[in-house]
Design goal:
This protein has 510 residues and is mainly α. Helices cover 45% and strands 10% of the residues. Bound molecules: glutamic acid.
């Protein structure tokens, strides 16, 4: 085991869009693989035909691509030596493992109909027990343990539908070591004879998952905490299939919790509190309901990944900002916490703000250009670069740039009414008119000179600069706040600033 090349997998079922908890599982698998020079696989676990959702598989692939968490084998990423990586296409193979388990006495055929199972449930519940198909109840059911051999043969020959169930031992202690949680011990009397192979000819998750992990030479199973209850069953399957020596190590990741810490983070919490729980926008193919995504909200993938990485893991120090490369370098499963990680939507924005500011003006200008083109804005590259330089300090997202700074390109059509109510009076009107006169004479219309002119105008008219500064900002930009005012003034230029001030004085009456 020690010398095996590290191979991990992300194994989602295509039952809907990928929740951010799933993306975090993929990310931790990826980081662990890269850190250990290993392989990261994407396997699509689509054996449950009833829960199959069209488009979900492509959504998973697109999400991983957007995040930059790229598998080196798997559906959508080029096939490696163990293709296919889609379980429905490996269907034929699982049957032989189910048969092997039956032949060795570790699994059995069960012919019970739905009605018979319901009846058993009712009977057990009526006598105060909890319903379970197990070492005790299996004796009274219709299966290859309770029936004579010829009868079983007859049923099989007649093509009667059956499932294959694992034969869980009656009283045995099952131990497994989890890298995050330590030793987990479960009594087999608490487990039930789970179905391994269904009457539709498909394996269940349990059988397919274990068989594929073994065949694909997976060394570490890193997955969500909700799979911990299945792990003892998987341990038994490794044992019964004779693969115990190749059993992967387990690491069950903590849940992502709601912002208040009460319960698992769900789509409903996102809708209620106004943040996405999916990486990309998703439209439900049946209800047509649209769910928002981090990409469409304007998050940068590296900010999103950085935020997710810290939900359940921390580095040795207090550092919070990590590039993907740094994450790979720092990551270890030992520092993943056992307890759930509270999701903080404000912190998510904080991460994006940081990544926005660390982009160069050139990068941001390139990213913004399509929107400006769409709006028919024609401006010099240099001008856009300077605008971007000022705006990136103010917003959390690139998609806020237009609402934060359209005035750099167009005169405002609306003025902030609160500021007007508070500051617009005869004195301030006089001030603005005087300032226009001074601006006309400013030798060179830059931030420094215009600020000087503003100050002398205040002195000249006996106005406190604080009384008129915000009003002047509103006259030029329409907005009550923004980047350094005289930088804006310099960028917009003499003629346009004066025009806007005059227009403001004419339009706004008190
Ligand atoms: N198909 C399971 C899921 O949807 C995979 C769990 C595992 O990683 O074993 O999450």
């Amino acid at each position: 085991m020690e010398n095996r090349r590290v191979r991990v997998r992300f194994a989602p079922s295509p039952t809907g869009p990928l929740h951010i908890g799933g993306v975090r599982t993929a990310l931790y698998n990826y980081l662990f693989a890269k850190k250990n020079d290993g392989d990261f696989l994407l396997r699509i676990e689509d054996t449950d035909q009833d829960r199959f959702v069209p488009g979900a598989e492509q959504y998973i692939i697109d999400s991983l691509k957007w995040c930059g968490i790229l598998p080196n084998e798997g559906v959508g990423f080029g096939n490696g030596p163990y293709a296919s990586y889609r379980q429905s296409e490996r269907k034929q193979m699982y049957r032989s493992y189910a048969e092997q388990l039956i032949n060795n006495g570790n699994a059995y055929y069960a012919f019970d109909t739905k009605e018979e199972l319901d009846e058993m449930r009712k009977r057990v519940e009526a006598s105060g027990g909890t319903h379970s198909y197990n070492a005790i109840t299996r004796q009274n059911m219709i299966n290859s343990i309770s029936l004579p051999e010829e009868e079983v043969r007859k049923k099989l020959d007649a093509g009667q539908p059956y499932v294959v169930r694992i034969k869980i031992p009656r009283n045995e202690e099952i131990r497994l070591h989890d890298i995050i949680r330590g030793w987990v011990i479960v009594q087999s009397s608490q487990m039930d004879d789970k179905v391994l192979f269904k009457s539709d000819g498909m394996p269940t998750y349990h059988l397919a998952n274990v068989v594929d992990d073994y065949i694909m030479k997976i060394t570490h199973v890193i997955r969500g905490e909700e799979w911990l209850p299945s792990a003892p069953l998987h341990v038994l399957l490794y044992r019964y299939l004779g693969w115990e020596n190749a059993m992967p190590q387990f690491a069950h990741l903590p849940l992502l919790l709601r912002p208040d810490g009460n319960g698992k983070l769900s789509k409903r919490d996102g809708d209620r509190l106004g943040f996405p729980v999916f990486p990309l926008e998703w439209q439900d193919p049946v209800s047509k309901e649209l769910s928002s995504g981090y990409r469409e909200k304007g998050y940068f993938p590296d900010a999103f990944i950085n935020m997710l990485a810290l939900l359940g893991w921390h580095s040795t120090g207090n550092q919070e900002l990590f590039s993907l490369k740094q994450l790979i370098h720092e990551f270890s499963l030992e520092r993943v916490s056992k307890s759930g990680a509270k999701f903080d939507p404000e912190k998510a924005k904080w991460f994006n703000q940081h990544y926005l500011r660390s982009r160069t003006d050139d990068e941001l200008a390139d990213l913004w250009l399509p929107e400006l083109n769409d709006k028919g804005i024609k401006a010099e590259r240099n001008f856009i670069l300077r605008v971007v330089h000022l705006l990136k300090e103010k917003g959390n997202f690139l998609n806020e740039f237009w609402s934060l700074g359209s005035y750099f390109f167009e005169a405002p059509v609306k003025y902030d009414q609160d500021v007007i109510k508070k500051r617009w009076n005869e004195g301030s009107a006089k001030f603005l008119k005087e300032l226009v006169t001074l601006f006309k004479e400013v030798p060179s219309f830059n931030a420094l000179e215009t600020e000087k002119a503003f100050k002398s105008c205040a002195e000249l008219t006996g106005t406190g600069p604080g009384q008129v500064m915000q009003l002047f900002r509103v006259a030029v930009s329409g907005l009550p706040g923004g980047p350094a005012l005289f930088e804006i003034v310099e960028l917009i230029g003499k003629e346009e600033v004066i025009k806007r001030m005059e227009e403001f004085c004419n339009k706004v009456v008190f």
